[in-house]
Amino acid sequence: MRIKRIQLHSARPGQSIAVPRPWITAIAAAWVIVGVYVAQSFLPHNVISLPAQGKVRKTATVVTPQGWAFFTKSAKAPQYVPYRLIEGRWEDISLTPHSRASNYFGFDRASRSQGIEVALMLHQDGINWTTCDSGETLDSCLELGARKATSAANPSPTPRLCGRAAVVEMLPVPWAWRDLSPERHTPERVAVWDVSCP
Asked: What keywords are assigned to this protein (predicted)?
């Protein structure tokens, strides 16, 4: 058996302990197996099936509850895009993506606060959603939604959604259909308000 000597930091220089190389290999292999089981527990259903995976999944969700969604949101989740009616035209007033030059490559945090403003507007009572028909343009859907516009107050300390404003729920075009549409997102529904700002 080959022995690997590991230097320990202690008060007495030169003190070391013999650690067998197979122990180091076994410990590293055990951690790799644990990592594979945890990763497989949080991945969507797939062709890989590990022994006792169902039991490990329950333990993994308790021990590591955040999963991979802690780091990013699902690419299939809807996006909520703010619009304003400016000089008779609906304009996208979204400040995202956060990393663009107008946001100083992410150092200006106004784009982050805009998401909170949109959420505050969407959590008010009495929202009238208008569903967009397939094949309908965004402008025509917004015009249809404007007929159901309600009055609302924007509680944000730095509001951008003022006057005739809307939020459009957009769904990403599925990957399998990416060649069938020039757009990356399609409008699903719109909410339109006459917003009063402080």
From this structure: Membrane, Transmembrane, Transmembrane helix
Mean pLDDT of 36-59: 78
Within 13 A of 40's CA, how many CA atoms are on the CB side?
A: 18
Cα dihedral sign for 114, 116, 119, 123? negative
Q: How far apart (Å, rounded) are the C-alpha atoms in residues 143 and 168? A: 12
At position 155, the amino acid (one-letter code) is: P
| Residue with the larger pLDDT of the pair 70 and 7 | 70
Strand ranges in 74-147 using DSSP code E only, listed in sequence order: 79-86, 89-92, 129-131
The pTM of this model reads 0.61
> What element of type H or E holds 137?
none
Residues paired with residue 20 on neighbouring β-strands, in sequence order: 3
The pLDDT of residue 61 is: 72
CA 140, CA 187: separation in Å to the nearest integer?
11
Phi/psi region, residue 104 (left: phi>0; alpha: psi -120 to 50; beta: rest), is left
Q: How far apart are CA 152 and CA 47, in angstroms?
A: 50
Closest C-alpha among 132, 152, 135, 139 to residue 78: 132
- d(Cα 165, Cα 149) in Å, to the nearest integer? 9
